[in-house]
Amino acid sequence: MGKILIVDDDKAFSRLLKSYIKQYYPILRVQVCSDPVRALSFIRKGNLDLLLVDYEMPVLDGEKVANYAREVGVDKSRIIILSSREADFLHEQFPLGTCLAVMNKYETAQKAVLDMIFSSLQRKAAANAG
């Protein structure tokens, strides 16, 4: 419980997010994959509590990664799409109900939403561990 996979070709952003999660939500386990094609094998193994996917990546974009995740059984409520694009654009690409959330990864207000999600995951992981 508490397993998060971050799929983002922006290695600096991924490292920063992983470090943040480890510091403030130490029960959660975080895996980072900068290659979306390689990430498919991690997704296929399942057992993910949260999948954070960058929308714009080379070779395989975030929409394709999210679609694959849903096809292999990852619940849509466990998928978050991150992007530098505006929210209106993202909502057009991912209508309500196709994933848990779409977020601009550089807007500080979005951090509060991620914190609520991470906090909820940590509470669930702690309850299952104890």
TrEMBL record:
It holds the Pfam family Response_reg. GO terms for biological process: phosphorelay signal transduction system. Residues 3-130 form the Response regulatory domain. Keywords: Kinase, Phosphoprotein, Transferase. One of its GO terms (molecular function) is kinase activity. The keyword Transferase applies. The modification 4-aspartylphosphate is found at residue 54. The keyword Kinase applies. It comes from Geobacter pickeringii. This is Histidine kinase. InterPro entries: Bact_response_regulator (IPR050595), CheY-like_superfamily (IPR011006), Sig_transdc_resp-reg_receiver (IPR001789).
